[in-house]
Amino acid sequence: MDWLVETTMISMVTAIIILSVKRLFGNKISPLWHYYIWFVLIIQLAIPFLPESRFSMRSLLPISGRFAEGSSDVVTQSFLDQVPFSRGVPITWGQLLLVTWLVGVVLFATVILVRYLKFKRQINRLSEMTDERVSIVLNQAKADLHVKRDVKLVCHGTTPMMVGLVKPVVLMPESYEYAELKPIFYHELTHLKYFDVLISWITVMLRCLFWFNPLIWYSFKVMQQDSELVCDYRVVKRLDLKHRKLYAYILLKYASMSSVCVKAPVTIVRFSMTGDQSGIRQRIGFISNVHNRSKWRGALAVLFTVTLALTTLTTVHAETAENSSQAGSCGQESEQTASMDTCCYQSNIGCSGLLLNGIEQE
Prior knowledge:
There is one protein chain. It contains 13 helices and six strands. The protein is mostly helical and 362 residues long. It has a four-stranded mixed beta sheet, with no helix packed on it. Strand 3 and strand 4 form a beta hairpin. Helix 8 runs antiparallel to helix 9. The radius of gyration is 30 Å and the shape is globular.
């Protein structure tokens, strides 16, 4: 539980910092940075054992190295006595929280897995596309992007989408035009090439582990949007001006249509080429500004990333933790000494008073 509480606190601080700095930079720096900066948060949440550092931000946390000191031995009997069936059962706060957390993890993981299997079953029922012209364009796009994995094509819904980690499937809109095939395949295959599906599954597992933290859920939602931005960036760099305009047109065209007929819950790992209108406007803004990036802002972003990694992807140095613990114990000893001195002083005053009273009576 110590690791869970400490990681939750430091991850919330990290998420707030990242969201604030991303808003500050805006589209003045590369979408690659906007996406990969989230890997600091992923590593922080996924890896419990990190190197020690004197500059770790965890040393500023009020519970750093001291959260559970003595707390695991405290039985919350006064609380549990209110529950009839729990009388006499030695359950601690830490055990109660641990059980609650584990139940939440199992419930969230079960719901997400059931929804995903149901969604995949619906996709698998769809017939594979057999149009020879479409297959030729797909194979050419795979060759251009050096993607060797087999990809199943099905025609369904109103917007391009890719699902599947082991067996990827690309859903083509029923209203697609032949000229749109190349940009669409470039977009979906780029997600496949850079392991975006795998990364998204990792974030889903982390959402299950930190199901109680809405800031983590919101952060990974923003990361999903950033993955679409960086995919646009990679695709547009391969296109000439004519095809860039076509790419922007495709985004606007399918964003204005309704969602796909096969409903995908928000927790399902899938990559839709379009999103809401505000997200599309942001993506088109990045596309139009693809070569207009500030170098000094980029250098500042790199410096920020290094600093954030060094301070948040480390744990408190052993000497720092020991000094902090000694300082705490010294403080307690000082308080005890001061209390004893006060008691002695009061007792001396009492004794002096008794002696004076005795002298006066004589």
